[in-house]
Amino acid sequence: MTETLDIIIIGAGPIGLACGIAAQNAGLSHVILEKGCLVNSLYNYPLNMTFFSTADRLEIGNLPFPSIHAKPNRSEALEYYRRVADAKKLNINLFEEVTNITSLGEQYGVQTTKGTYRGHHVIIAVGFYDIPNLLNIPGEELPKVRHYYFDPHYYYRQKVLVVGANNSSADVALETWRKGAEVTMVIREAELGRVKYWTKPDLENRIAEGSIKAYFNSKLTAIRETEVDILTPEGAITLENDYVMAMTGYQPNFDFLRKIGVHLSPDFKRYPFYNPETMETNLKGVFLAGVICGGMDTHVWFIENSRVHADQIVNTILARRAALV
Q1: Domain 4-131+250-324 has CATH 3.50.50.60
Q2: Domain boundaries, the chain
Q3: Dmax (CA) of the chain
Q4: What does each C-alpha distance from 263 to 87, 104, 105, 129, 224 come to in angstroms?
Q5: 84: which strand partners?
Q6: How far is the C-alpha of 178 from the C-alpha of 64, rounded, in Å?
Q7: How far does Cα 295 stand from its chain's mean position?
Q8: Which residues does UniProt call coiled coil (predicted)?
Q9: If DSSP states are collapsed to H, E and C, what string results for 7-39?
Q10: Cα separation, 198 vs 227, whole angstroms
């Protein structure tokens, strides 16, 4: 495109939408580029997922989020953010993946699978749901291994092994068990991890009564077509198995950040560099917003506490413009 935009936003999740709204309110031209559907990560959440937060903490653009539940679910969130995008008439291009960002002096060129854009500023507001953390064990490439979970009905009368100790693992274990699966959990730690307060007692009771078998202080070591190997404190065991649900978490696209020149911390967390007051990276005019700011520490930033990034960034841009006048 020949037009030079004020802001190019990468990612049409809730925070990307919030950035678009902030740009629009400030009279700044923008486009939001999304490689999938609107709020793509939320769309890929489990069918029956319920948010930890109340609806008011998920609101953006001063638009109320009506919910018939104390805590909204996935379908309500999809409906809400669709209505926000329509009500605000945001400029969004869906199913258009950004492949590179290059410096053009005082501007940036953004290349996508469908074209090229030019902008004065870029906001990277992508999530971390597209790249799973791998187990790195033999057999992980088998089709029976799933890093994503949608509907429990599929696993009726199947032997399901759930790897992990946090919210996703707890939901998968309970939902598949209630739909008739034979469920076993493998947990590296001595106890359950971050689990919603209304879910944790339910799972603990199912484990205590033996309905769900849990191996603590254990790890999955190998996967085969009809069985798995687990290393427990009492020694190695082999179990019959139909599906492995590896709920081991996800990570941002660090390769993309490195490719465009954003600095990452050298440790395992790989925190991307940014100024917490302006959200600007080491690249002048390139900003981060939302969960990507946490690197591998994916339990720091959420919709609730990163909505403010949109105003921080736009206020920074406006202040710099005013200083030039």
Answers
A1: yes
A2: 4-131+250-324, 134-246
A3: 72
A4: 37, 19, 19, 21, 40
A5: none
A6: 34
A7: 11
A8: none
A9: EEEECCCHHHHHHHHHHHHCCCCEEEECCCCCC
A10: 32
Give the pLDDT of residue 192.
93
Write down the pTM of the prediction.
0.91
Token pair 């009506």 is found at 66
Angle at 6 between CA 23 and CA 285, to 5 degrees: 100
pLDDT averaged per 10 residues, the chain (length 325) = 90 98 97 97 89 93 92 95 97 98 95 97 92 95 96 97 94 97 97 90 97 98 98 98 95 94 94 97 97 90 94 97 86
Count other Cβ atoms within 10 Å, centred on residue 244. Answer: 23
Bridge partners of residue 235, in order along the sequence: 232
Burial of 154 (0-12, 13-18, 19+ CB in 10 A): middle
Q: What is the DSSP string of 75-107?
A: HHHHHHHHHHHHHTT--EE-S--EEEEEEETTE
- Of 64, 85, 104, 70, residue with least CA distance to 16: 85
Q: Which CATH architecture has domain 134-246?
A: 3-Layer(bba) Sandwich (3.50)
Q: Which two tokens stand for residue 156?
A: 């009726």
134-246 shares the fold of 4-131+250-324: yes
Nearest alpha-carbon partner for 66 in 78, 53, 80, 49? 80
Which phi-psi region, left, alpha or beta, contains residue 243 (left: φ > 0; alpha: ψ -120 to 50)?
A: beta
Amino acid in the structure at residue 52 = F
Interatomic CA distance for residues 224 and 202, integer angstroms: 31
Residue 35 · residue 10 · CB < 8 Å: no
